[in-house]
Amino acid sequence: MEITRDLKNHKVQLSENAIALVKKICRRFNYEEGELINILHAVQSQFGYLPAEIQELIAKELDISVAKVYGVVTFYSFFTMKPKGKYPISLCMGTACYVRGAENILNEIKRQLNIDEGETTPDGLFSLSSLRCVGACGLAPVLMVGEKVYGRVAQADVRKIISEYKAGCPTHPSKE
Amino acid sequence: MAESYHLLKRADFIFRNENDWEDILTKTIKRTPQDIINELISSELKGRGGAGFPTGLKWKITAEAKSAEKYVICNADEGEPGTFKDREILSRVPYKVLTAMAVCANIIGSKKGIIYLRGEYHSLKEALEKTISEFEYYCKKIKLDFTVEVFMGSGAYICGEETALFESLEGHRGEPRNKPPYPTIKGYMDKPTVINNVETLAHTFTIFKYGAKKFYDLGVQFSRGTKLFSVSGDTPKPGIYELELGMSLQDFVNEFGDGDTKAVQVGGASGFLVPRKKFQETAIGYQGKLTGISLPTGGSMMIYNSSRSMFNVLDNYLEFFREESCGQCTPCRVGCQQLLIGIKAVKRGERPAQYLDKLLKLSETMQITAKCGLGQSVANSFASIVENFREEMIY
């Protein structure tokens, strides 16, 4: 792992490799301020999230303020400062999904995984977030696991979907 | 008067698979810019994102702007709840959009096009870029200097607003700019920019191929042509339908409702809720209709049957707006929060029913004072729901 998290102090330690990787990405975009969003996407796809330390590093590389980087990170919902689970679950809370019972599905997931929105299960397998309309209203209610879309999900399907991922995951404790 | 409204008529232009985009492109760019602009203006095509600005005029103003650098941007940040038409266009007929962008670029004197693709549509990117490289190859062949880049959005509804979209493209927070200056004069990178919705661009392809008259003959006065509608909610047949503009909402509901339709939200969260008693008098088109109320729409048609609580619907919209307000201007940032807190307080009985009138006033203030379309249009859904379903807000 290239980032070590110190949960007690909410600090992360960036390894040499991690620092080099971030620097490399900044260089790839010519240190251009206008490329900040693309840089953040590229960095997040490497590390899974954007902790404050990484934002500071990017700000330094691009010679812009940390506030500017933080402002962009917090503005767009695709950027996250918390690590996501191996299987990020997102539920569409757009109106079409909402009126077709997305809230019940959300509550069912919360109950099954015992986490709240924006949290990750202790084993790091699942994280839960709600999205605003994924543009699949014809399939409402819609649930996504990573990039995979599940349409017309019923409350009863939730357990099945989750257990599929648990079974398919070699690192899950029950398989060890 | 006679043609001010008509029955629901289906059409099939947008998704018709035309295999001759290369011919259309070659032919169209040989015409004079003035000729093409005149044709677009006479077709009376208006922006299909919902605002309805005449497309021909937009291209004309940008063409006349003096600048060595200009841009053509396709707004594919389709974020209005209940809209999913652009996604279909970009996956099924992307070359139509690209052809239109190239023609536009050629007219206004631009060499660069950008497609701002909604972050949630990441899965479309690969195929789209493949089509683009084929397209660029052809452009090179006919000596047309034009390239297209796909820029991924990062999950912010407000970025569908054109000036917020420019900010986002430039790497900033997607906070709308003041207008004027309009994008036609000062857009992306402060250069003259044509920014069109995906569907608008696809319609121009139809006009290039079949001529303005064909397009103009569809629809009704002030609302010419066809429009894609994303139908969802309580309907036995959700999906995307291309319909002529100007139909009455009653005909729409007869066709798509489940027999128990209570209300239809036209135009997504920023649109209007129409209750059953007003279906007959409401037509779907742009402003300026001769009879009845005419509602412009980005194409989202959400159908609610009698099992739905309108309080929950409004609650969902307001939560959406509170979440998506960029926070830049006070009327929108604070207004969205207060409206949401307010309706909840009334529902719980902590505030008297009359408090709703105060909230209506607040939404009116937002309409007048908010900086951009987001804050201004909160009042649309808020007032239309509270006024038509007041009892559901209280009890």
Automatic annotation (TrEMBL), chain A:
Provide any one GO MF term from the record.
oxidoreductase activity
Name of the protein in question? NADH dehydrogenase
Q: Which SUPFAM superfamilies match?
A: Thioredoxin-like
CDD domains documented for this protein: TRX_Fd_NuoE
Entry cofactors = [2Fe-2S] cluster
InterPro entries (alphabetical): NADP_DH_HndA-like, NuoE-like, NuoE_dom, NuoE_N, Thioredoxin-like_sf
Q: Where does this protein hold [2Fe-2S] cluster? A: C92, C97, C133, C137
Automatic annotation (TrEMBL), chain B:
Tell me one Pfam family matched here. Complex1_51K
Residues forming coiled coils: none
- Return the SMART domains for the record: NADH_4Fe-4S
What's the superkingdom here? Bacteria
Question: Where in this chain does the record put each NADH-ubiquinone oxidoreductase 51kDa subunit iron-sulphur binding domain?
Answer: 311-356
GO molecular function ontology, one term from the record: 4 iron, 4 sulfur cluster binding
Q: Which UniProt keywords are listed? A: 4Fe-4S, Iron, Iron-sulfur, Metal-binding
Asked whether the UniProt record includes ATP-binding among its keywords, one would answer no
UniProt-listed PANTHER family: NADH-QUINONE OXIDOREDUCTASE SUBUNIT F
Q: Which family does it belong to?
A: Belongs to the complex I 51 kDa subunit family.
Q: What is this protein called?
A: NADH-ubiquinone oxidoreductase 51kDa subunit iron-sulphur binding domain-containing protein
Give the organism, scientific name.
Answer: Prolixibacter bellariivorans
Which classification does the entry list for the species? Bacteria, Pseudomonadati, Bacteroidota, Bacteroidia, Marinilabiliales
